[in-house]
Amino acid sequence: MRNTSKTIASFAFKRGCLSVFILVLLSLFFPAQAQSGLPSPNPHSPLTDLSGTLSPEYLSAMSARLERYPFEVRALYLAKTQNLQLAFYAEKLFKAWKMPPKSMLMVVALDRRKIGLHLGSELRNELRQVPPSEMPMGLKKNEQSSASQPQTTASAEPSENEHLDRLPEVIEEISQSLQKQNKQAQQEPPQSAASRSENLLESNINESKPLKRQENFSPRQLLPVYIFLGILLFTGLFFLGFRLWQKRQAQEALIDKFSLEGQAAFNEIEMLYAKFDGLLPNFHKYQGDTREKLKLFLQEVSALQNQYDDIFDNYEEEVKALAHQQEQADAIDFFLSLEKGLEKGQKLFQQAQTILKNLTDLNRNNQNQLESLQTQKHKFSQELHELRKLHPQLKLTKLSPVFQRHHEQLQEYESLNSKDPMRVEKQIQEWLKELRKLEREIQSLPHLWLQFHQDLRQRIEGLKQRAAQKKLTPAQTRQLEEVQQLHKNILQAIENGDMERMNHLNESFTHRLQGLESEI
């Protein structure tokens, strides 16, 4: 799959290089027409001369003639325009200069002897609606002058600045043409004005039909374009054929790759499946808490085995599907899933080995602790024997069942350790806690016996003497008898080693003794 990605990336790189090459050629054959920036208007005059070739007298006279119109008229003179579309440039400049809707902008190309014209929307509408009798004075005058010219003027050779002197005439012709559009019967314009305006004016007045780019190329100028288009067509056909050949080669390589790698992954999955079959019985022997902790892991292993079973059933069909274009995508996904399933199985198998090792170590640690507990049990038994010898009054008859119960628990832990080591580990900690508590209580028995046998007995005898001197109420007499009985029962519990009963009686004894001492 990585080889296929490299092939696609290589083809994309080649296609990108070809695109860059095409853009370079286009930039050579078709130079940019737009200027880097738009000029600014002349703030002191409606005329802006960027050529620098016009005399101040001409500019002053033309400015005075343009200012006679009842709407704003501006003109821009350009020295070199090449194939610049004057009408569109005038429209763009009209918006950039933010001229009012009732205004007109002319772009004069000195090198091509052409004029580009753009009218504001409000001016355009007004010119269409104004009748001929209400035309501006400047327009009527120009109309009469142009009509009085002889017919031979149109065919005469124009002077160098004739097209510049005729700017007001252009404005007049534009206003006349706009008015004539409202008439049903369109009249033919005078031949002289039409012939003069045809090669002089480029305008986008009629916005219903956008201007088309008019460029005249000679056959010699178009020859590089034809050569380039031929090269481009040949290059496209070559890359198309190369792409088809490359696609077929990639498909064959893809089939070989996934067939070989898929077979290798399939064989490893079979071996891994057999390893799981040999390893899982080691998990099935565990019970109780250990089994509960392993439940999620065993479910994951079972799901993986079911996935492997599906792979074994569908492998042959997916190998055949690699050769079919329609089923190839699903087959590739299947072989990619083989690698993912193999990686997942290997991780699970390593995890299973780690879990078994940890359980084995836990079993061994529990066994060592159980042996240590046996030693502590014997030590505890020896301490009880020494305590009876030093204090014969302590019979400790209640400790024998407790000792026997702890002994039986150790035997149960030893038999359960191989099946549920996690539970045994927790129970060993609880057993040690109980044993330490029992040791502390037994060590305190001699002190408790002396305290109740001497100190508390003397306090009870003192109460009896004060009671003999003072007449007690029946309730006080009953309380004194209960205190004596509790004292006797506590001494008996201490001698028998019944710490639970002693703690229960001691709380009631202390409370009643203190209350009786405060009353008597």
TrEMBL record:
Q: Is Acetylation included in the keywords of this UniProt record?
A: no
Q: What is this protein called?
A: TPM domain-containing protein
Q: Which organism is it from?
A: bacterium (Candidatus Blackallbacteria) CG17_big_fil_post_rev_8_21_14_2_50_48_46
Keyword annotations for this protein, in alphabetical order, are: Coiled coil, Membrane, Signal, Transmembrane, Transmembrane helix
Membrane-spanning parts: 223-245
Q: Where is this region: Disordered?
A: 126-163, 177-198
Biased-composition ranges, Low complexity, are 144-156, 177-195
Q: Which domain of life is it from?
A: Bacteria
Q: Gene3D superfamilies recorded for this chain? A: 3.10.310.50
The residues forming a coiled coil are 356-390, 421-473
Instruction: Give the signal sequence positions.
Output: 1-34
